[in-house]
Give the backbone structure.
Amino acid sequence: MTNGPGAGIPAVSSAILAMSRHLEVRDVLKTIVASARELLDAEYAALGVPDDHGGFAQFVVDGVSDEEWKAIGPLPRQHGILAAMLHNATPERLADVRKDPRFGGWPAAHPDMSDFIGLPVADGDEILGALFLANKRCDETSTSGPSGGNGCRCTEGDGCGFTEEDERLLGILAQHAAIALTNARLYERSRELTIAGERARLAHELHDAVAQKLFSLRLTAQAATALVDRDPVRAKGELHQVALLAAEAADELRAAVVELRPAALDEDGLVATLRSQVQVLDRAHTACVTFEGHGVRVLPSAQEEALLRVAQEALHNALRHSGAGHVAVTLARHGQGALLRIADDGRGFETRAVRRAGRHLGLVSMRDRAGSVGGTLTVESEPGKGTTVKMEVPGG
């Protein structure tokens, strides 16, 4: 990559747009590092977010394979040049990092690095992290500086050296990276508050629904016990009511557990998590619940979570309220993103009464979830013809 006159700013603009598409902190960090490495055409890039104990809470690299990263060992500590950037908020540009007096050597499996550039990522006076790159790739077409016989810019180190223009472009990127990282942190905090609110809502529902059903169950069982000897027929009817109440209470508990249980998105991915939950619901309900997934790529984690939560809400509606005999869940690739479809053959409803139905079926919260990740949600339904919920997300 050559940063000629006028070429750098469009590349920075593309990198900023890439960062703005993500809401999760980890996704933003990965995008910052990959964008910086591409922008400056470096072999390696990394970004460390410091903790309060002399280490790093998060450390993201680009240009190092998973196997190499595992072999390197524990995360670095805040020392040497990294500490200088974090504590003094000063950029560092070195022809050969190995010759700097602050250099303390590499772990055995660490790749060798020579030319180096690093900048703090700061929000006002708060240093959010340190972004650094190493080993700028030689530009075979460049003729500036000693050529060494091959036309590339050579320095004291083994690479071609980062320039003042590189530092300027990286500085612009770092400023916008701070904004993107701050926004992502605010989003995650907002989501934590939302989750806390959801748990409070579920606790309220458990008290109002399950507790009341269990209370009714106890009273009905007591009535059946009193009637066994003097009126067996009525006792049989009361016991039948006990069975119905127990089934309803079990359904309420199943729904609450599915919502409360943390989804294994990080470990299993969206497709496997959805398939697993559909299988659980298929076993727990009389309706047939099926799942199909078609070529879905990995999506930003916020979009995957939103898809999962909307699927859970739509399944809850179909199994609790529609009287459906069959519910089909489909997740398919759609451009760079994905399309989720939950269709049931239940009783349906009149879409013109969407305000009333929206409150009853959680359509407002589903639309909010879709909109929060740049997606769209549509609902198609007719009385007697079932309901189809579709959610589309753009990918990343």
